[in-house]
Design a protein that fits this description.
Strand 1 and strand 2 form a beta hairpin. The protein has one domain: Ubiquitin Conjugating Enzyme (Roll), CATH 3.10.110. It is of the alpha+beta class and 228 residues long. Helix 3 packs across helix 4. A 4-stranded antiparallel β-sheet has the order 1-2-3-4. The two termini are 32 Å apart. It has 6 helices and 4 strands; from the N terminus they run αββββααααα. It is 26% helix and 12% strand. The C terminus is likely disordered. Keywords: Ubl conjugation pathway. InterPro entries: Ub_conjugating_enzyme (IPR050113), UBC (IPR000608), UBQ-conjugating_enzyme/RWD (IPR016135). This is Ubiquitin-conjugating enzyme E2 R2.
Length: 228
């Protein structure tokens, strides 16, 4: 199965069963570049915010993971690079290619594997927002502030929230309670069998049609580098 075909399947599934707290669209109809809007979870410092990010997939997906970059390069978080070529890029184990290098401090099961789906990645990301991994931060200053001065850290996040509100789509109804972020199980076959893949429908995405999608340049489908 081609990367474009695999991504079509996952994008279609997310359209049927959205992950609470996210709005996912394609950028310029490019199946390899997804625009992701993250809704700040209620009860956290991110509440009320709407944070735009870009997820880029490699041409050999799902064998290698996508990258995840916040559009605001000044996004303040222990696990987001603050400067340089990687400014705004999220550093999280689930998006790291498999490696047996023990110096990374990650177990293989924490890293990317082709069996993972994008839903699990999005859930990990929204969890990481309010519960950062400070053991090996991409932004050392944010990690130190989070551990030593939580009120000051939360104020930095509230400033991000205020700035982000300008990006809330006019048609988006922002959630007001934590129950809006609870994953709902897909309908059973008795309730709705439309969630099952229609093999005949999938044939619409044959190799010829995959070529219609812009796979982008090497930069568009880059893979995250070393652990930090």
């Amino acid at each position: 199965m081609s990367a474009a075909h695999a991504l079509q399947r996952q994008f279609k599934e997310l359209a049927k069963h959205p992950v609470p707290g996210f709005r996912v669209t394609l950028k310029d109809d490019n199946i390899f570049v997804w625009e992701v809007g993250i809704i700040g979870p209620p009860g956290t410092a991110f509440e009320g915010g709407y944070f735009l990010a870009t997820m880029k997939f490699p041409s050999d997906f799902p064998f290698n993971p996508p990258t995840f970059n916040f559009n605001n390069k000044k996004f303040f978080h222990p696990n987001v690079y603050p400067e340089g070529d990687k400014a705004g890029e999220l550093c999280v184990s689930i998006l790291h290619p498999p490696s047996s290098d023990e110096t990374l401090g990650e177990r293989p099961e924490e890293q990317w594997n082709p069996a993972r789906n994008i839903e699990s990645v999005l859930i990990s990301i929204v969890s990481l927002l309010s519960d950062p991994n400070c053991s090996s931060p991409a932004n050392v200053d944010a990690g130190v502030l989070y551990r030593k001065d939580r009120p000051a850290y939360n104020q930095r996040i509230k400033d991000l929230v205020t700035e982000s509100k300008k990006d809330i789509p006019p048609d988006l109804v922002m959630p007001t309670s934590e129950k809006d972020f609870v994953m709902k199980p897909p309908p059973t076959e008795d309730e709705d069998d439309s969630f099952l893949w229609d093999d005949a429908g999938d044939d619409d995405y044959d190799d010829d049609e995959d070529m219609d999608f812009d796979e982008g340049s090497d930069d568009d489908v880059g893979v995250e580098d070393d652990e930090h």
